[in-house]
Structure formats: C-alpha cells, structure tokens
## 1
Amino acid sequence: MGGAASQLPKEMVSEYQELTFLTKQEILLAHKRFSELQDRDSLSSRVPMEKILTMPELKSNPFRRRICHVFSTSEPNDGSLTFEDFLDLLSAFSDSATLEIKSHYAFRIFDFDDDGTLDAGDLEKLVNCLTGDTDETRLNPEEMRQLIKNILEESDIDKDGTVNLSEFQHVISRSPDFVSSFKIVL
Amino acid sequence: MDSIDLVFFSDHKGRPSNPLLDQLPSYQSLLYHKKQSLSSSTKRRGSVRGHFGSLTSGKWISAKMDERSSSSQQLIREQPKTMEEKRRAKEQHVAQDQDLHGWIHWHVHACRIFKRVKVDSLEVLSALVLFRGDIRVIEGMFGTGILSYFSFLRFLVLLNFVMFLLMFGFVIFPIAVAPHASGNITYSQADGSECTDYPSSSRRGLVVFHQYITDLLSGTGFLEQTYLFYGYYKVEAINFHKCTYNIPLAYLLVTIAYLFLSLIWIVKRSAVGFKRSLIQDEDRFQSFCNKVFAGWDFCITNENAARLKRRSLLYELKTDLEEERIKQKIAERTRYEKFRIYILRIVLNLFVIAVLAGCFYSIYRATIYSAQNEQKTNFILDLIIEYLPSIVITLGNFITPLIFSVIIQFEDYSAAFEIRFTLMRCVFMRLASIAVLLLSLWSQITSCSIDDCPCGYNHKLYPCWESRVGQEMYKLMIFDFLIIGAVTVFVEFPRKIIVNHFNCGLAKLWGQQEFSIPQNVLEIVYGQTICWIGTFYCPLLPAITTIKYCIVFYIKKVSLTNNCRPATRPFRASSSNFFFLVVLLIGLALACIPVTVSIAQISCSQACGPFTNYTTSWEVIPHTVSQIPHGLRALFYALSSEAFAVSFFVVTCLAMFYIIALAGAHKRVISQLREQLAMEGRDKHFLIQKLCQAQKSARCRDMPSKSLMVREQTSSYINPNHDHAGMFLAQSGADTATHV
C-alpha cells in the first residue's frame, strides 16, 4: 500500500475530481484504503463483497450488503466493487453530493427487491434492518402492520400502495436530517 | 404486489416501446430523474452548489459558454450513473467542445483550469477550519446528534473570539499603544469628594504566597488594577496629533456592538432551523417517514453506537405507535382520574417552585454573606467565603435536575413532552440563578445604610462597584470551568474504572456515564450568559471564555471517547440545533437586561472607570451627539423622536401582516395541490380499471391486434391475474429505474 507503484496518476485524480463530488485528498485516501483491500495491484480488479464489508466504515451499517449491490457494476451482480465503483459509492455518500443524488441512491438501497418501487415487503425489511433482525428487537406483526400503514399514509401520495422514486424524493426533501446523516466519512 | 413479485422472477429484458405506456404516470415518475437533470440543471446549479455556479460573467458569450461547460460538468457529476458511463458522457462533451473554434475553445479550457484552482484552494482553506479533524472523528464515531453539540461549542468559541477582537481593537489596543505612538492620554480628574475615593486593594509589604492564588482565583488584589477589570480604564480621551479618541464612547459602543453582533449571528444561524421546525410542525404526518427513511445515521462506525442507535430507533418507533394508543386512553379518562392527575400536577409544580425558591433564597443569603464578611482568618476559609455564591449556584444546578427528573415521572405527560418540560425547568433554574445573584448584588450596591446616598450607590462598601460585578462574573466563570474539569477527572473517570473492573451488581446497575446533550448544552449556555453579562465589567472575559471553551472542547472529546456512552435516547440533529440556539437566545435576552439597567439606570462609580465624568454611562451618547455638526445632530434627533418610532412601528407591522398573508396563501395552495394530486391518482386508477374492462371485453371477442397488446400490458401492470405481458412492462420499468 501507499508505495510508488500504487500511486494514482495525476490525470486520473483530476478526472475523478471532475466526475465525482470528492476532493483530491478524499480520492487519494480512498485509493489508499482500497488498495489495502486488493490482492493484485491493478485498478480494474474487483474486490469481493465480503472483503469490502470488513471495512470499519461499513461493518456496523445494517445496509452494507445493499450498498455493495447497488454500487457494484459486476455482471451478474455479486456485490463486488472496482475502485471506480468504490469512488461512486463515496461520492454519493460525500458531504457535497446533492440531495437528489443521495435520495436516488437511498431509494435504490431501500428497494430490496430491485423492482423500482418500495412496497410493503421492502418497508418491512427496511424497518427490520433499522431495529435489528433478532426476535426481541423486531416489532411484532401487529405493530409492523400499523407502522407500514402509517408510512404509506404519509408518503404514498397517489395512493397506489407503493412508494415510488418521486414520492420518496418528495418525502426525503422535507426531512431535514437526511442529508447530514446519509454520509460516510473515510 | 403479486405482479411485482411475478415480475421479479421473470427474466424478460426489454424496453417499453409503446407511446401510450410511456405516458403512464407511474412510468413517468420512474423517468423523473432523467428528465429533471436535463431540464432544470441550470436552475438548480445556482441554488445547490452556489460557489460553482457563480462564475458567470457579464459578456453574453462567456456566460453562454460557461453555462455550457459548467452545466455539462454539473450534469455528469449529478447523474446517478456508474463511473464508466460518466466518463463516456464527459468524453462526448469534450468531443463537442473540440468542434468549437479557437477563442471559445481557449475560454472553456481557461474556465476549467480556473475552476480546478478554485476547488483546490477551497480545499486548502477548509483545512484551516477550527477543530475540523476532531469534529470529523466525533461525527464518524457517534453520529450527527452528538456532532451538533460540538459544532455548537465551536460556534461559541468563534463568537467569543470576535467579541474579544472588538473589545481589544477599539478599547484595549488604543490605550496600550498610545504611549508608544506619541498619543497623549488624558485621565479624568478626581475632584476630591468622598465618592472619588478609591482605596487601593493591592497588598503591600511581604505577601504570603497563597494570597496570590486567592487573588488569581477571585480577581482581587494585584489583578484588580489590570486590563482585566472596568476600574482600570480610567481614561477620558487619547490625544493623537490631530484627533482625539474618545474612550468612554468607544467603550459603550463596543458593548452595544457585541450584544448586537451576538444577536444577529445567533438569529442568522437559527433561521435555517426555524424554517425547518415550521415545516415539520406543519407536516405532522411525516414523522414516521422521517424515522424510517432518514432514521439510520450512516456516519456511525462505532459498533457500540450502532447498537445503541438500533435500540433507540426501536424505542422511538414503539413509543410513537404507543402514543396513538395513549391519546386514545387520555380521551377515555374518567372525570375522577382527570381530577386526580391535575391535583397531582399542581402539587408537584408547587413543590418544584418551592425547590427553586429555596435555591434562590440560599443564593441570595450566600451573596450577602460573602459580600459582608471581611475578616481574614485563614486562607481556605477565605477562599470558600469568597466563592460562596458560585458554590451555591453550582450546587443548585447540580442537584435540581436530579430532583426534576424524578418528579416528572409522576406527572404522567407524554414522553416527548416530559423531556422538553424537564429541560425548560433546568434552563429556568440555570439562568434564574444568575439573575438572583445579580439582583442581590444590585440590592447591595444601591442600598445605603443611612438615607444619604451622595454618589447614587453604596460607595463605602463598593468604591468601584463595576469592578466588583466583574469580579463576581470572573469567579463564576473560573469556578464553572474548574467544575467541568473536576467532574470529568474525579467523577466520570473513576466511575468508568469502577464499572469496568468490578463486575458486581451495583456497579452494573449504575452503568457508565451517559453523555446527555441537553445538560451539556445548558452548561455552556450558562457560561456564555455569564460572559455576555461580564464583558462590560471585565473586558477581557471573552478572551478567557474563548480559551475556556477550547479546553472544554478537548475535555469533552476525551471524556466522550473514553468515559461516556452516548445517551440511549438521542437528540435529532436538526431539531436540537434549533433548540440550542433558542436556549442561547434566552440567555442573551437575560444578559441584556442587567447590562442595560446598569448602563442606563445605576449611577456609574465616580472613583474608577471611563465614565467618571458622567452620572450614568449612557450620558456619553447625548453628550457626543450634542458636539457633532448641526446637520447630523438633527438627523440623530429625528431618529430618536416619537414620530419616527411610531412610523417605523407601523411600517414594520404592515410588512409583517403582508408576510403572514403570503404564508397563509402558500399554505392554502399547498393543500389544494395535495388534494389535486390525490384526485389525479384516483382518476388514474379509475381509467386503468376502465381499460381493464375494455380489455376483457376485447378478449372475449378474441381479436388479436397490436393495439390490444397495449391494453393487456397496461392492465396487467396493476392487475396481477393476467399474462406475461405485465411482467414485461414492470420488469422493463424497474430496469430503467435502477439503471438510468
């Protein structure tokens, strides 16, 4: 790590600076952290999801697997990340990313079945992720039903039983804590 | 729902090619992002990332080119695409730019370089921000709730530093520099009356060492005649070659300036939070969404903090769900139960008032006792007597919150209100205790033993009462600081060791210290209020406060990372920021009252300070106004006349009414739009049902055609019982949604 061979070329750094919301130091730090996870020393090699999940920044995050799946470009999607995927991830979670981009990725992270809308099943998984998925921390079925009903009442503007992206972004735009909390600091 | 599950397992790939399908509202909203980023990027650029959008110059061509280059770059960044796709998009733009001819090409290039330099320099500047690294570490470990406390502390450090610069630049610096810059200092003359008699308090002869410690801690003795206190500034004017610098005027104006500066700065900071809290109050029905969609704090990396966060989220959700049931219960309360609860609340509130009154009375007694007790017996006893008011106040502040938190459990309020109510009681206790201290000092200063009061204040006991008040504030400040340090070292640290190393039941029950944000905020707001009051009497107090808060920052950081665990019931960052500033504003309002009264009402001491020639400090202003040229003087008189005040008041009222009416209109429009949206949704359902029916009847007639396909696809999007066309549509919709 950090040796002369693994340094990012200067043009690459400035290109990444243009394409992401990251600053130069953040990109260099990301590269250093990423090359610690890599076996081979090449930018295009993928790091499997299990290895990414060992990073302390993600270790205690209940959505860590979803995050990897959303940002992974591998085919078929196994959650492994290239360095550029990793930069995309950090860019979306950076301080200066716009609300729009953050809410877009949040929507995709919360959309557990990847079908483009948040339905009752997604919401249930989301709530279980938040409260912890063990028997004593889970809400009981009655409470869960009530909670999902309340959420849909609040956010489902066109009353079709699911929350779509624009409804989600509408709700998020009125939630003051979202921008400050949807952030990962390396 | 079934259709979506069905769709999920099907592996059709493709894109909707039919124009009718593209018009479906649900599909449109999936495309929302794509469309928005194309159409509104220019508008958004200015508002969201202002410092990048501010490059436009006056010339049309450069403005146009700039728009092109920066919007393209903004666009690329703001698209939720993978790096590969973004790079391709950028290359396309570059290729387009290549077609442009010479000068414009050069201009675009220059713009890009300029922007890069700007970004780099901003980065360098941001490294200079105070405590940046520490704040990031805290944010990473404990999330945004605790972060808000530390950024609040940083704000106070900056505020105090600016206050110090004001005081230093306009009052202390001219006096200090005058002898070296051929300035001539005019001291105000003592006319020999008894009021101007100011016995020196510095000790003569052989001084025992511990006396110095007493002096240092209580601001008496050798410290009394330094820049630290009001009494030292016995300067009337500084005469430079051509002009004279009016120190009394500068002193008074700086006092007014620092109070105003604090007010404006706090109001500016709280404006954002105020807007948010207004929106939140309006949108009472968004609470569940906020908790679920924005509930997780992605900054948290500490395993322990993550577990706590999970527990607190569960707790919050459960209490919110229960709150509805409780509301039901309250509505069903019998008359007898209601009566019982109200009686209980009244009794407990009376008890709270009694506790507060007891505290205030003891502060009053302690102040008087400490002021009148002069005998020098021994060092420790002297120091304790000197510090008696501070000790009593701190003790009160320490014990009463414990009592309040026990009492509130019996009063049967809802959980959220319980916390707020306890806090308001604590705020009241903290700030009122300062008020009581000042009141008792004031009664001491203005009371004369016999009916004659030649100087307007008790000149025998307080030859220079302003310095005395300054000393009192100085002592409170130092004592508060010592207590913060001592609690960390002697209470929290041993507690942690005991809890960690003794595994018995009692220690487990006690647990580690909780880092309770409200109590900590109250602590520093209290310190800030003292600083605001004291700066007039003790001009160097902002400097001391700045240093104090810097050290407190590190003490709290160490104690947070080593000794404490975050509170089980966390504060939300947005609401808490606003709450901190509101408490701070209350503190400022409280601080303004004694300063204003002492400037305008109480006769300033004749023996010391810059205002010896005036009866009250405020008289400097009329005096100065009467000396300035006629035109300006008329302006000042006009500004202070009743006519101006009345018309100003009327204009302000009109503006306020206009804004209230505007807000009401907006609110109505919002509710109308919301109704309309729900209506449209219903219309959509209705139309799709109609389509379904049409399709059924068409199928009965068994006429396969292209237009029918469309209907099938459309209907099965909502109706799961139909064929695979539905999967095809929904799958492709999802596909585009997740991979645009």
## 2
Amino acid sequence: MSIDIQTVNKLANLSKLEFDDTGKEEVRQKLNKIVEFISQLQEVDTENIEPMASTVHATSTREREDKVTEENHRDEFMANAPQTEMGFFVVPRVVE
Amino acid sequence: MELYELGLKEAADQIKAGKITSVELTKSYLDRIASRNEEMKAYITVCADKALEMAAESDKRVKNGNPRLIEGVPVAIKDLFCTKGVQTTAGSHMLEGFVPPYESTVTENLWNAGAVMLGKTNMDEFAMGSSNETSYFGDVKNPWDKTRTPGGSSGGSATAVADYLCAAATGSDTGGSIRQPAAFTGLVGIKPTYGRCSRFGMVAFASSLDQAGPMARSVEDAALMLRCMAGYDEKDSTSADRPLNDYDEHLAELDVKSLKIGLPEEYFIEGLDPVIKAEIDKALENFKQGGAEIKTVSLPHTKYAVPAYYIIAPAEAASNLSRYDGMRYGLRVEGSNLNDTYCKTRSAGFGEEVKRRIMVGNYTLSSGYYDAYYTKAQKVRALIAEDFNKVFEEVDVIITPTTPTVAFELGGKITDPIAMYLNDVFTTPASLAGLPGISVPVGTVKDGESELPVGMQILAKPFALQTAMQVAYAHEQMTDFKMRSAE
Amino acid sequence: MHPDYEMVIGLEIHAQVNSKTKLFSGSSTTFGAEPNTQANIIDLAMPGVLPVLNTEAVDAGIKLGFALKARVNRKSVFSRKNYFYPDLPKGYQITQFELPIVEHGTLTIDFEDGSTKDIGITRMHLEEDAGKSVHDFGDENHSHVDLNRAGTPLMEIVSEPDLRTSEEAGIYVRKMRAILRFLDICDGNMDEGSMRCDVNVSVRKKGVTELGTRCEIKNVNSIRSVVKSIDYEASRQIDVIESGGEIAQQTRLWDEAKGTTRAMRSKEDAHDYRYFSDPDILPLCLTEERIEKIKQAMPELPDEMKARFITEYELTNYDASVLTLSRASASYYERTIEAEEGKKHDPKLCANWVTGELFGALNKMGKDITQSPVSPENLGELVGLIQDKTISGKIAKQVFEEMLETGGAPKKIVEEKGLVQITDVSALDGIVKDIIANNAETVEQYKSGNQRVMGFFVGQVMKQTQGKANPGIVNDLLRQNLQ
C-alpha cells in the first residue's frame, strides 16, 4: 500500500494541516516508510482475538453524581484566548 | 558536598531535622540552574519567585512542627503537567504562553506533600520523540556527554536530575519516555502501572498509554517521589481505585533467594549492543550469586510492539491534538477563512514529528483502513499483553535492557523516523500491556571519548510495582555503578 | 403532494437530558445563562482535562429504553467522532457509535380515527451537545462562540424509516415528547432547543420498494416545522425527479422564515469521522440490579394510561390518547372526575369538557394545561352541576365562560347569577300556556304537521326563563299543551 499525493491531501485536510509542494512530497515519502513499517502487523495471526482498547480491568466506567461542582470562572478561563468579545470567543466566521 | 547534590530523601530528612532550610536548598538549585540551564536547556520555564515563596512556606511548616513527606524539597516538573498560573507548553510552539487556570492532579499531590516547584522541564513536543529534539524550545544536552541526547520525551527532566538541577523530577511515559531517558542519563525512572497516577491535567499524547512517573538519582528517591505523585483520582475515569503503597518504606524487604527472574529471549537479539548485554549480565550475575532463579522466557510478539505502538499512539494523538485549533487558547494564525485559520494555526504551531504522527493517526483511523491498522494493532496489543500474563505465571519480574544502545548523538536519528522509533523496541511492549517498569543504571560503557550509562529494565505484573522496586533496590546495593558527580 | 408518490421519513430526535450538569463535567446546564459562564475547563477542552460520565444521563437512557420497549444493552461504549468546528472544543464529539445504550424499540402513534401505527426505533444513544455560534453581531468576518451548551447530555433517538406522511411525523414527535416528559428525563421544550429534530426525507413512486435518495434536514425546531419542512422537501424532491433530475444526497437546512430548505454550505466534503472508542472512558456496563431497580420504578406511561382510561372510563381511543399526551392533562382529567368528595363525576362528560371546551379555550389563549385559569376541581364541580341537572349544558357553557374569566367556582357563579335550572313543572306550565296562547298562528303550523316549529316554542320558553328552564320538562309540557 503506497501513499500518493491525493492521500496526503486528504489526510492534510482531515488533520487541518497544510504543506507546500516540497513538504508534501517529503511527508509522502516518510508516511510511506511508516506505513510500510506498521504494515508488518499483517503477518500476525489475530484470528479470534478481541481488540484491546484499554489495559484497565474495571467492571464499568466511573460515573459521577449529577451535582453542580463548577462556578463561573469565565474571565480566568478566557485569559488564554486569542480573541474574545462580550464573553464570547471570537472566531473566523462560521458558514452553515 | 553542595546542597544540590542531596537526594530527595536525604534533603527531606535534613530539612525536617532543621539542618538545612528549604530556602537555602532552593537557592542552591536556582543558582546552579542560572549558571547552567542556558547550555543544558533542561528547563523551559524556571519559576524562581514561586519556588522561593513555596520554600519559605515549607520552612514555616517545619518551624511549626507539621512538615509533610517531602517538605521543602525542590523538584522539576515535565512541561506536560498543567501548573496553575505557570506557563505549560508541552514543548510546543502551539502552547507557548499558555498559562493553565488549573493544576494537574500529579503536581497537586506533590505540592500537598510539601514539594517546591523549581520550574518546567523541556521535552519532545507533546511527548512525541525519543531524543528531545522535537521540542520547540531547543535540544536538551546529556550531562554525560553534551553532544548526545538525554533521550526523550522526558529529556529535560532527565538532564535536570542528572545534572543536579533539581532533587527529582516528574516525567511521563507513553512508550518509554521515562525509562529511556533514565537509561541514557544514569537515573532511576519509573513507569507505574497504567492508572496508578492520575492523568488529569497532564497534556494528553496517547490516552490509553500515557502514565506519569518519577525520575531520580536513587531507587529510594524515585519510590518516595512516586508515592507523593500517585493515587486514585475521581477526575480520571481510568485512574485505579486501589490503595497506594508506602513504596520507599518497603524497599529492603526482598528475599533474593526466592526471587524468580525471567529473561525474555526476544530482547537479547541482534541489534542489541553487546556492551549493553555485558553490563546487564553483570547485574544478573549479582542476583544469581544472591540465590535468585534466573530463567529464559519467551514473549513471542515482542517485535510487533513497536509497529502496534506506532499505530495506536498516533491514532489517539491525532484525536487528542484536535483541540489545538486556535479558537479558545494557544497559538492562532489568522487565515482568510475558518478552514484556512485552522490549517495555518496548526501548521505553524506543530513541529514536523507531531504533524507526521497526526497524519499517520488520521490515516489508520480513516474509513477503509481502520480495521487493517487500528483494529489489528489492538488485537496485537492483546497478544502482547497475553504473552506477559503467561510469563508472569512463572516469574516475579522480567529483566531486559532498557534500550538497544546507549545515548546517541544529537542529530543522529532525527531525520529517520523509523530508526528513532526502533529505539523504543524494549519499552513499548510493557506500555501496551499497561505494566509497571523501572529503568535502573547497571554500569557505564565507553563510547568513543565518552563514558555513558546503561539502563536495565525491570518489569512486573500490574500493580506489583513494589516488587520491581525491591529488585531495583537490591540491584542498587550490589552494583558498582556510580552516578557521575556534579560538574 | 403528487398522487403518484409517497414519502419515506425517518427522524433523529435529539432530546436534552434534564440533568443538572453536563454529560462529562460538573458544569450547570441551566438554560439562558450569560455566554460561557457555564463552560468549565472540561467543556472548553483545555489541555489534559478528562471526562467523567454523569450517572443521571445513564439512568435517563435506561428509562427511555424501557419506555420504547427496546433492548437496553448491558455494555455500551463511548466513541469519539472527529471533526473540526468552532462550537466543538475538543475537535471530537463523545458519542456512542458501535454499541449504543439502547437498540430495537417501538413507538406507537395514535391517529384521530382511533387507529394506531408502530414506528420502529433503530437506536438511542447518549452523546454530548455542541456549543453555539452566533453570527448576528460583530463584523461579517467573525462569529461569536458560546460554549455553555457544549457537553450538555443528549439522547439521540433514531427512528426506522417507517413514517409515510408529514402528519405521521408530527404525531411521532408529539408522542415522543409526551414519553420523555412522562419519564421526567427531558423537558421537551423545542423553542429552547432542549428537543430538536433532524428529518430524513426521501420520496418514491408508489409501489416501489427501494428507498429513494434521502436528504437530511437540520435545524427543525418545532412540530409545525417538522410537518412543513417535510412537505416542502418532499415536493422539492418530486419536482426534481419529475423534471428529469436526480436527488443528491445532502444535508439541508430548514429556513423557518422562508419556509424552505437549502443545501448547507459547510461540511460539504464527504465525512470521515474516524470513530474510535474513547480511551478516556471505559465501557459502560450496567448491572442487572441497576436495570431492575429502574424497571420497578418506571412510572405509568402514555400507552398504559391510555389503555386504562379506555377500560376504566370507557373513553374513545382518540380521547384517551389526547388526554394522555401529557402527564399534566391526564392528571387534570382524573382530578375533574374526583373533584368532589364522595361523588364521582361522569368520566365521559369530564373527557368531553376537558378535550372540548377547556382545550379549545386554552388553545385560544395560548396557554397550556398547567396555566389553566379553571382548576380541575372547579371544572369537575361544573360537570357535577350538569350531571345532577342543576344547570343545563347550555347554561354550563355560560358558567364556564365566567370561570375562565374570573377563575371562580361554578356553584357560586350559578347561585349569584341565579342560573339554577327551573324544574318546577307548574311554574313552567304557566309560561308554556302563555306562549301557546300568544302564538296562535305557529300553533296552527304545528298542528298541520310542521314539527320543526317546536324549536321556536322551546326558544321562547328559554328566552323568558333566561335559559334556565329544564329542556326536558319544557319539551314534555309543550307536547302536552299542543295536543
């Protein structure tokens, strides 16, 4: 399985990353090597093996009581924001 | 002896006994950092004022007769742990200037145990790297040889501890990021069982693998440090709700005569530097002399751990790093529209390795490839865990080299991702299985002009870290390895 | 609607769990707070923060599973749905994908003619809501994001494509809302967005069994809009097909003001959400004890209550279904029956008054049953007055008008206004005799066989008695005197 430039473009779009043409070609080559490397797994017999998503052996995920534990700290939380106005985060226009 | 040469336990004892003050000790570290950090680049942020404030507070507590476990001892925090009011970058331009309005649970626990924060240590960007060279904030130097890497991703912490720029430090280990730099710098580094330390407030790389742990200059210090970091946390759904050991108080309780050590044949293979093998053999010989049973065991899926790891970790990372979008915090590079802003921000904010892993993660998760890669890797992960389960029916601990080579030259592998990934060959299997592991120094080898440390990895069953620590401690008593003294 | 076509409709209802806090954080979910004052570090997806599941949302899901006669999965899994959007702080939504908490249910809808239809429920899963982008102020190049709603627990209820008309879809939504409210797990307020619909519509020629290409309509925020948007979209699709075109599968936005749908400009690229199980949350495994406990505590639901009303009160299927559309109206109705101690009011008469006069009046006033100026006790008392013939039905309507205005008790109104029915035969006989004497011409008409003038005489009596005469007695007396 070899990665072509179209795949790089698609992945860049999913990843929200951009590359110039040289960068794209470099990424393509490195991704190809990595994909070749990880494709080694295909030789492992995994029939009837359950995929392991986590190593935690709890009976169920933790659940929280439905109790408000948070107060308003808007100003503090927004202090790192690139742009705010009237308590809103200001972002490039969202088109629906 | 300079104050900065004191270990964590020693320093805590002396402060509690009133022999030294926390402010004196803190100043000693701050002075040393001031003279050395520009070269070593161990710290991204040094918080001198805060450290002195905390130290004064500690001295007050000692005076009032209510000191805590490590009262007044200055430590360094990997810049992956969010610290309230102190810049937290994860080694990335993306988070340069980000000041969290909250504290990670691990650091909160440390402050509650009386620790003093010296600053935040350098690291591979978002913990993705094995040499610290992916950091936006410069390459960290290995104090054993400044042309070499201290390893990664907790390279800043490794150098901070090994160069006596703190008493101990926190690290995080996803595929070997504590154990490998510990091995490269002659330290004790512990990756606890997954779930032992809370992940809350620790910038996520790969959620199912990330685990915080300590780095220190002795087993006892590392054990004590972990005791102050770990514990159940209801804010982390994957945190283990089970009692915490007083690790450092039970180190000498091992009966070596009844110890069964497993040596996995798959780890002693081609590619392993023979001088490393020789050093491990020396350590094993000591155990043999002490009466331990040593047997060869097999972990047949070992060679698939690195490829499985490099599917699972990037997949989780690609998703975990989606929040860095320039909207609510962190870097924003304004583009011509929303999509352009996303792309420009993330392209400018992330370095090459991080971008590559995001791309790989999105490749293996995307429709059409998911089962072939992601599901397959999770199945292989199950097989690897099963390999360990079987072996642990026969042995108490597994001993392996921590790394296939000693610390390599800066710039040596950074252009070849696969070569870099293969550096994790001995550490990723335990990460995938969620097992606890310790790297302890076993000796040094000559490489060119340099004398470089070699690390030995001790793995145990889930939540049997105490056993691994006891083995590490027993080894420490027998080895002729000497930590380098401060330059 | 073109007579050759039929619609195939499936609905995705997003119902907000009425929990106090969010699905994965302890932030409040109160509606209408100042922007971003209910968004904590978890909702804002700050680095390193982690989700912990709200137990209330899980319980709500189990309850709804039972109410929809569905399978409650003992193990369900939370996954990440990855995409970038400013109102989605993490860059992924935590939702249930492969293993939802509830699957394979049924919802029965009721028609006016008393018939019913079962609509299949494919699945119901728990997920978190997104924030809100506001475009109404500031310059045209920017939007404003409020993340108060981000992380609010939602139940996404997906129906099978079993609905065939917009009317059915409307009834389905109303019934689902009734169930959610009966369970007290969602307030069902569509205007506050706590219940929202995405509508999947396709059309096909009658007799064709394959499904046509569907379009998904988003942003449908009232039952009226559900009906209108489906009608619009179906005729749009038919027009496209009839003029030789093909339907493109797409997401469309309902424009309430224009009454039209339009293709969405964003998210136009084929989605690849890269779902995978969220490594921050372990699988949710439900114990039999927990499920059993919730099962035991299940309240009476609309269908069960409807069945009871039909057998216990002998109501028609439709009256019973209308009365059980909300717990408030059902309980109002039952209180009218039991309004007076030691006396049971005629259930059918009560049902007529509640569904007829009362619902009509409330509808006109734009009020719901909980805001009724007439209490169920007073309405019951009124029915009692009719039942024991203290007043006639006609007077009762007059009294009811007064009750609506003043909220007064009917007995008092009847007394004060002297509206008690005249049942004194001798008094009425005198009036009847007078009227017959004064209308000789009309009497002749009656005697020559024109029965219809009877009404004229009754009217005259009522006029003289201000409507208080007992109509039965008046009829008897007129007949006797006209012999």
